[in-house]
Specification:
The protein has helices spanning 4-30, 36-68, 72-95, 99-131, 134-146, 153-160, 166-179, 182-196, 200-206. It has 210 residues and is mainly α.
């Protein structure tokens, strides 16, 4: 059964995978490989999506969890502030044109993000899934989606789908198919097809209603 929390985990997997690539590219740059500028620009968009995701959690998921598990969400808000500080450190390192400091900053960001997402998946979203009624979970997911500027949604789809595997793609697509009006989903379906290219056949096999 596909659940709202599956969509959140798909985003978490995309964040992990993209941050691994960014950190590796920054390390390669510190070792003399060209191309750091393009990587950092990718990271800026990565961070935009992360900020939208975190803002959505603070608007919808954290208040819901607070009702059934008081004080749990507080530590995750602190983590979000720590990620903001890590991004600021990376930005200043890159602005100083210092590849070594930039590589150190991306490594710190990656470590902090990896630990944060692990805690959310194993703790916060376990509470969310087990203690909050399914309709309220869906409502929270809708609020989270609304934190993304709608004009940027095509960029989000183009970023997300190449970074996740077949299982996450299937779950994400099924959830959007369930919650979006048919005309809206039709447009999103086209965006997904563009994002994954030849892999569309596998997704269509898994979801015959596409």
């Amino acid at each position: 059964m596909t659940e709202p929390v599956d969509a959140i985990r798909a985003f978490h997997n995309a964040f992990r995978n993209d941050m691994e690539r960014i950190d590796e590219a920054a390390l390669n740059s510190a070792q003399g490989t060209e191309g750091l500028a393009e990587t950092i620009e990718r990271f800026r968009f990565f961070n935009e999506i992360l900020v939208w995701h975190a803002h959505g959690e603070e608007l919808a998921v954290f208040p819901a969890v607070e009702q059934v598990a008081p004080l749990v969400a507080e530590a995750y808000v602190v983590d979000h502030h720590g990620l903001d500080q890590a991004f600021d450190e990376l930005s200043s390192s890159y602005a100083a044109h210092d590849p070594l400091k930039t590589a150190r900053a991306t490594a710190a960001f990656r470590f902090h993000l990896k630990m944060h997402l692990y805690k959310e998946d194993s703790h916060l979203y376990r509470i969310f899934r087990e203690r909050i009624p399914l309709p309220e979970q869906g409502k929270a997911l809708g609020i989270m989606a609304g934190a993304v500027p709608q004009e940027r949604f095509p960029e989000v789809v183009a970023w997300l789908y190449p970074l996740i595997g077949h299982d996450d793609r299937e779950k994400m697509t099924r959830i959007w198919q369930m919650v979006m009006p048919a005309p809206v989903f039709a447009g999103v379906k086209d965006l997904i097809k563009q994002a994954i290219g030849n892999d569309w056949a596998e997704l269509a096999r898994r979801i015959p209603t596409l």
